[in-house]
Design goal:
The structure is a single chain. The chain has 409 residues and is an alpha/beta fold. The chain has a domain of 281 residues: Rossmann fold (3-Layer(aba) Sandwich), CATH 3.40.50. Helices cover 46% and strands 11% of the residues. The chain contains 17 helices and 8 strands. Strands 3-4-2-5-1-6-7-8 form an 8-stranded mixed beta sheet, with helices on both faces. The protein is globular.
Length: 409
């Protein structure tokens, strides 16, 4: 009721309209709790293209989820350690963190730190030492073993928390470097879902094709449960046609996986890490903070809807398999056209039927006996193995420069 009381601003006052929308979102989202998943969700935040908002999205989504009453763990697997900085956790040289977990076999519980600003948010920091982990992991002869180290460490930490009677982790977010080395492979093997932040620019579309192909290879050989579950549009500027068209292209390719919420460009989002905070605590009323809070809510609710739909479908399949009568009755819709002659129309007099038949014959002779061609259904895109071309009209004209040079010559 309070949100509805805020007056609408006119089209000629965009700043007032944005302020009114932010006020409504602040009223709707603040103080709300989110439902806990049935089991711990492990999401790898990955994109091999740099500068698309991976770390920013990972830390702000984690903070938003924790503010909504969930238990969240952030694993910083980027040697730059930017996620650790944004969450206010020290990550200097020799600080126990992801490197020690992967290389030295340190228990994850000995490396995890509590975020000082957000209750219920834990962090495993990363230091520059992690940059040397690639070479050390490459010396392991067993390929499966060297890319499963993070998965085993995370499973051990979850079991240890359960033994100690601590609350179960609801979400685990892994912030990856912009590459596909052994560290990123460890993160992809440890997770069941991939969250891809996409900058609303052309280069992001090219990188998305490459990333999707690499995820498909990991899914085929190392982690069959891995899937692209969520795509988040970042650095969105509604004033530009480029951003809108890139967003439309991504939504066309992944209609059910792209979040409706977009993350706008915001100076506050960029300022927050310099103060050792996320934008969720640095400026909670900012439009960027509200967008991440709304995206976190959508991330939880969309997964809940998919889980309920999958459960209902599985129960329906089991019910049909257990009840033979349902299985026998189910094919009947395909046979119903055979019952159409029982409609009262054939009960008319024979003369009328003969006359109608005679009248129908010339019509058949006049029209060519060619069946109308049915419209082919649209091809379904498999998120992991099917064809995908996001470029569309974005393919650049590489011959323009050559033609201009020929004219000058």
């Amino acid at each position: 009721m309070l949100a509805q009381a805020i007056p609408d601003a006119g089209e000629d006052t965009p700043l007032a309209r944005q302020a009114a929308e932010d006020a409504r979102r602040r009223i709707r989202l603040r103080g709300r709790t989110l439902p806990k998943p049935s089991q711990t969700r492990v999401l790898t935040v990955a994109n091999q293209k740099g500068g698309v908002g991976k770390t920013t999205s990972a830390v702000n989504l984690a903070a938003a989820l924790a503010q909504c009453g969930l238990q969240v763990l952030v694993l910083d697997v980027d040697p730059q350690g930017n996620a650790s900085t944004a969450l206010g956790v020290a990550h200097e040289d020799r600080t126990p963190g992801t490197y020690e977990v992967l290389v030295d076999g340190l228990r994850l519980s000995e490396a995890v730190r509590q975020c000082p600003d957000v209750r219920g948010l834990e962090v495993c920091p990363a230091s520059i030492d992690l940059a040397g982990a690639e070479m050390e992991l490459a010396q392991e002869s067993d390929m499966v073993a060297r890319v499963s180290l993070l998965k085993e460490a995370l499973a051990g930490y979850v079991a240890e928390r359960e033994q100690q009677g601590r609350p179960r982790l609801d979400y685990v977010l892994l912030d990856c470097p912009p590459s596909l080395g052994l560290i990123t492979l460890n993160a992809l093997v440890a997770a069941r879902e991939v969250l891809i932040p996409i900058q609303c620019e052309y280069y992001a579309l090219e990188g998305l094709n490459q990333l999707r192909a690499n995820i498909g290879r990991v899914q085929a050989s190392l982690n069959s449960e891995l899937e692209i579950s969520t795509l988040l549009l970042t650095m969105y500027d509604a004033r530009t046609r480029l951003a809108r068209e890139v967003a439309d292209e991504v939504r066309r390719a992944f209609p059910s996986r792209v979040l409706d919420t977009t993350i706008p460009r915001s100076v506050r989002i960029s300022e927050a890490p310099s103060h050792g905070e996320t934008v969720m605590t640095y400026d909670p009323g900012n439009s960027g903070a509200l967008s991440y809070l709304q995206a976190a809510r959508e991330l939880v609710e969309s997964h809940q809807l998919r889980t309920e739909a999958a459960t209902a479908h599985r129960e329906a399949v089991q019910h049909r398999a257990a009840d033979p009568e349902v299985a026998e009755v189910r094919p009947e819709p395909a046979d119903t056209p055979a019952e159409e002659p029982e409609v009262p129309q054939p009960e008319t007099a024979p003369e009328s039927s003969a006359g109608s038949a005679a009248e129908a014959e010339p019509a058949v002779e006049a029209e060519p006996a060619v069946e109308p061609q049915r419209e082919q259904p649209a091809a379904v895109v498999d998120l992991r193995t099917g064809p995908l071309d996001l470029r569309g009209s974005w393919t650049p004209d590489r011959t323009a420069g050559r033609r201009a040079a020929e004219r000058r010559a």
